[in-house]
UniProtKB/TrEMBL annotation:
The lineage of its organism: Bacteria, Pseudomonadati, Bacteroidota, Cytophagia, Cytophagales. GO terms for molecular function: acyltransferase activity, transferring groups other than amino-acyl groups. It comes from Reichenbachiella agariperforans. The keyword Repeat does not apply. Keywords: Transferase. This is Acetyltransferase (GNAT) domain-containing protein.
Amino acid sequence: MMGSYRYEEGLESKRLRTRFLTIEDVKLWSGFYLRDGNSKYLLNLGGDTPEDNARLAVERQLKRYADNTYGLQGIIEKETGHLIGQCGLLQQSVHGKTELEIGYQLFNDYWGQGYATEAAMLFRDYGFSQLGANSIISIIATDNVPSQRVAERNGMQRQEQIPYMGFEVYIYRIQRKGWELL
């Protein structure tokens, strides 16, 4: 799929920069899990409380970094320095094939301001230009219309509907050739 592993933090767009998550981010993520509806599209990581789920979610990303399987990174709003969500690249298996996926989650207060699209485009461009990806996907629940719109603004097209990890999802994809035409 790609050459040697490298995954960088500190990517920047007009309004955002990225950084690897740390265990200190758990408290902020606890608030994310406390908000109604936020966990609807997240895997059940087995925590008994929002705090447990936040810790498990952050630890999952730290393990991905350590295992060289990419991971979601914190999204920092440059103007305020606030952590506003996470976005990044994930290795996923779809139909037995390893795929590079862009995933994203924003704190509710930052919805509807174009941040998810801006962050997703940043990682799309990084995946193609720095990692040499031939194709990048997003796996999105069929009823998660806002995330589907982000994928479409990111140049992706809906390819198929499949069951995936307990959800009915759409696979959105952009090929390198399509990215080069953007």
